[in-house]
Write a structure and sequence with these properties.
Blueprint lengths: L1 E7 L4 E3 L9 H11 L4 E4 H7 L8 E4 L10 E4 L2 H11 L3 E3 L3 H7 L5 E7 L7 E2 L8 E9 L9 E8 L7
Parallel strand pairs: 1-6, 1-7, 3-4, 3-6, 4-5
Antiparallel strand pairs: 2-8, 7-10, 9-10
Bound molecules: NADP nicotinamide-adenine-dinucleotide phosphate.
The site of NADP nicotinamide-adenine-dinucleotide phosphate has 28 residues, from strand 1, strand 2, strand 3, helix 2 and helix 4.
Length: 167
């Protein structure tokens, strides 16, 4: 499984000023449960935004800067290289952002763990539009609000529809 994991608002917004747009305790826990023990692939700016290697996971950072290093992380020069490194480690790999990496990854990922926050935010970074005809919703959990979050949100799991026909 090559999965994208992302949280979007109703306009597909994901970030502003290299930060997330909300703090949803349930979503952070969900992210940890889903990705724990598996390699995570991210762009250099998302790594800077998180500020440290995520524990319990091989952290793979994509950067065009050959001198970029980060403690406890692998640094590679492309998404293809990141997927090659990750798939040598584990059959389940997670692409955790940000926008530039998601734009490349939607074409190759087979699964999307999509948190939808039912609200609209001021943002400068967006998840790409995905075609509903290419992705099947296979799981959905709706929350009316979070423990410390006043808006509703949903955890969706999407699977890419395979168009391959036999014979
Ligand atoms: N809501 C969510 O689920 C979520 C998840 C993750 C991130 N975010 C948000 O997304 C925003 C960051 O996204 P972003 O698009 O600005 O940055 P990003 O995708 O995290 O990182 C961009 C950087 O990745 C490297 N890169 C990208 N494509 C590359 C390629 N083809 N080959 C080699 N290197 C490549 C470059 O690094 P160098 O400049 O070092 O070459 C580029 O500057 C932040 O606001 C963050 O909070 C939101």
């Amino acid at each position: 499984m090559l999965a994208i994991i992302v949280a979007v608002d109703e306009n597909n917004a994901i970030g502003k000023d290299n930060k997330l747009l909300w703090h949803i305790t349930e979503d952070l826990k969900y992210f940890k449960i889903i990705t724990n023990g598996h390699p995570v692939i991210m762009g250099r700016k998302t790594f800077e935004s998180i500020g440290r290697a995520l524990p319990g996971r091989t952290n793979i950072i994509i950067s065009r800067n050959p001198r970029f290093t980060a403690a406890g992380c692998r640094v590679v020069a492309s998404l293809d290289d990141a997927i090659a490194v990750a798939s040598d480690i584990d059959e389940n790999q997670f692409i955790i952002g940000g926008a530039s990496i998601y734009r490349e990854a939607v074409g190759v990922a087979d699964t999307i763990y999509l948190t939808v926050v039912h609200n609209r935010y001021d943002a400068d970074t967006f998840f790409p539009e995905i075609s509903k005809s290419e992705w099947d919703e296979v799981e959905r959990i709706d929350f009316e609000r979070g423990k410390d979050f006043e808006y509703s949100f949903s955890f969706l799991k999407l699977k890419k529809i395979q168009y391959l026909k036999q014979g």
